[in-house]
Design a protein that fits this description.
Distance between the termini: 71 Å
Number of strands: 7
Transmembrane segments: 6-25
Keywords: Membrane, Transmembrane, Transmembrane helix
Radius of gyration: 20 Å
Structural class: alpha+beta
Number of domains: 1
Strand order of the largest sheet: 1-2-3-4
Helix content: 25-40%
Number of helices: 2
Strand content: 35-45%
Largest sheet: 4 strands, antiparallel
Length: 157
Amino acid sequence: MDFGMTLIGVIVVAICTVPLVGMYIKKKNKEHKMLDVLKDLATKQDCNITEHEFCRNFAIAIDQSKHFLFFDKHSEQAEDALFINLEEIKSSKVVKTMREGSKVSVIQKVELVLTPSTNAADIKLELYNDNSNMQINEELQMAEKWSEIINNQLKNR
């Protein structure tokens, strides 16, 4: 009887943990692939990534010594991977686009906007869009953190 209960307990624990372990492995593989894309971009620019971060379907990284920012975003439509020379950037800010509902306002989009030193158009890195993600997670906090990292980098060049 004790062996039967123990066996049932082990099976229940296995049934509960196997999906969680599978999701964790899938997430880590996805992050590894995005980091490989960023490292490849960095290598092509003769850079080394000194700091990076992942969130859902995008990754962002920086080479603080060479002043380059790297961004990789995967969506159903395409994959956008780009690098930005921060020597050509004047400032960074977070732009939150809101949509007014009947009782509450909802975040529709979160972008990290880089303003070039020249009169060129702003560079917009879309971190969240409610059309592709139903719920905002940590995108807003990441945008604020990376805006601060970039602005500190711009001060120290």
